[in-house]
Structures are given as C-alpha cells and as structure tokens.
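#lab-general

N.A. 3:47 PM
ok so I finally got the sequence cleaned up, no stray characters, all 404 residues accounted for. can someone with queue access submit it? mine expired

B.Y. 3:52 PM
send it over

N.A. 3:53 PM
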Amino acid sequence: MSQDVFQPTSPAFLADPYPAYAQLRRDAPLFFYKPWRKWIVTRYEDVDTLLRDRRLGRVLHNVSEVSLTEHFSGEEASFELSRVGSLLEIEPPDHTRIKDVFHQTFTPKRVRTLSHKIENLCDHLADILLARSSREADLISDFAQTIPVTVIADLLGVPEGDRHLLVPWSTGIIGWFEPERTPAMEREAVGCAQAFMTYLRDLIPRKRSMQADDLLSAMVGVHDAEPERLSEQELINNCILLLNAGHEAVVNVIGNGMFALLQRPEAWERLKLEPDLIPSAVEEAMRFDTPLQFFERYVLEDLTYRGFDWPRGTGLCLYYAAANHDPAVFSEPETFDIARDPNPHLAFGRGLHYCIGAPLARVELTAALKTLTTRLPGLELAESKPEYHPKNVFRYLKSLPVRY
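B.Y. 4:20 PM
back already:
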C-alpha cells in the first residue's frame, strides 16, 4: 500500500503531497521506499524523536578535504568538496568546533543590527512595485527573492556588483540533494558549487585588506588566528551554507505562505486588521506548506526502533511537512490558521542540526509580511493555480503572479 500511496515522481503527488502524507501517517508511518533505499518517516512523534536521537547523524563520516577521495569518486567527489566542514553536513566533534565559531561570529547582535535594513529593503521593494502602472508582479521574483539574497550578501560582505551571481549558484547547488536528480542536475550542481567556492576563495584576501565589519571578515579573522578551529575550506563551505539555507527558506516561505494567505481572503483581511498576528502567521506559513519537505539522517550505530532493526548506515527521510500536519499535534492541521497557538512546527528542525539562521529568517519573514499587509493591502492572486517545481526535498512555486 505504501508504495502505491508514496509516488514522489507523479504529477499529482508533486502538486499536492499532503493527502498522501495523511494516509501514510495513518496506515504506514514507517516504511522502506525501495527506489530511494531509505525509510520514510511521517508522524510528528517519530520525526521529532529521531531528530533528537544522537544515534542518528546527518553523515556517517566527517569527511575532510584530504580524505574526500576515500569516500567518493568522480563528479560526486567534486561536489562533496563543497560540503566538507559545512555545519549542516557534519557531526561532533567537528560540528561542535565549527558551531563555536558561528556563536563567536554570527551573533544575536549582528542579527539585530540588520533588522532596520531589512525593513527598509522591504519598503524599497514595495516602492518599486507601486511605481508600476500595470499593478501586476511575480511576488517571488519581484519581491521575495531579493530579500534574503540581499540580507545574506550584506551579512557576508559580498560586493553589490557580484550579487547577481548568488541566486543562480544557490538554485543549481540545491538540485544535488534531490533523490530524483538527473545527470544534468548533477553537472549543474557541481559547476555552481565550484564557481561559488572559487569566488569566495578569491574574495578572502580582499577581506583581509578591507578589514570590514561583516561576517566573512570575522570568519577570516578566526581562520587566520586559529586555522585549526576553522580551515579555509570550512570557512568557504559555511558561507555557501548560509546563502543556500537562508535564501531558499525565506523565499519559499514567503511564496508558499502568501499563496496560502491569498487563497483565503478572509485570513488576508484579518491579518491586515490585526497586525499583531504577523508573527504567528509567519509560523503558520512555515508549518502549513513547509519548503524543506524532509531531512535525511543516517543510523550511526545499530538500533531497533518501533520493532524495526536498523543497522549502521540505514538512511531515513524524516518528513517535516507530513509531521507538521499531524492531527495528534495540530488541531485541524489542514486549516491555515494565522492565530494558531501553540505551533510547535518542525520547519527549522530539532536537536543538533536545528537551523542556526532561524532568528534571522524570522526577522526577514516578519518584515516582509508587515510590508505586504501595509503597503500592498490590495494584493490578490492573478492565477488560481500557480505551479510548483517538480521536486521532492524542496517544495516551492515557480512563480506567484499577483495583482495589487
């Protein structure tokens, strides 16, 4: 039954996977999907528990630049170089070492200093849209996409003239993580990763001479003073992580969330009248149509879970999106409720790999929604059924045409 319900390549599933998730939660909450050679996990309790279980990890080996070819070959090794030391892709003790560097450099104070800039940026984007005589736009490419790439570029200190390079690189790189990826997607991911690494490697000496107050400069300072804490490759790869994770999450929460809101005019009207609900509306947008649908984990030591024997190396797909609709946790989970409280969604993960950029993402999302409700209150959908990209890990719209 589970193989019939879980059809990740079918157009119907890709357009709306949530009915399938509901059936799986009820009838087959844990099952082995042969084409991916991984277990699919859909209930909230299981996803939450396994995310916290230190017997599971993101990777089986913390691969170094030197040992890369011991574990990978050919094109795969070329891409994996861009993941060496990336905070998302490692386990302790390396994870602990690099997270300490983040705590030293990616501080709450640094995030707070960006708040006013983010609000001004959102207002500036609204000014541009309001200057259009047509009063039509793609809310993703004309508004949402600019916010995180500008914020992350400012945070890292990427020169304005180079910022047009970042989104194509990010889009290409994330294709690697799709279980149904094609050879063309692999080639694009490798090319984008190599281009991004080369760019950052060339930018590092410029940062040394500038002595600017940005995150990349701070990380370069840590590397130069204590290279054993942060190698150059680790520095580069964590900058790539910041862009990819920060960009994809924010753009697609805005896109998916605004689609959900504008499909429900009564919710949109209520939000405009009750701006105090914006923070809870942001959380509901992350829960209702979670952009990162699942997170992969691997069994690090043999274990038995709910009667299943999982040897070391067993792969799991922990479905955030399915867990976020579990009626055992969320009342009326198929209802988009901008006042939902509590809302313990898993969109940012749990445990060791909880998203380190979550505070910054919430600042961006709150500013974006505040601007849209106040500056573009007449927003409405220009298409009733915009298309989603045919992907499994990342669920996001190709475009969101609106009128205002």
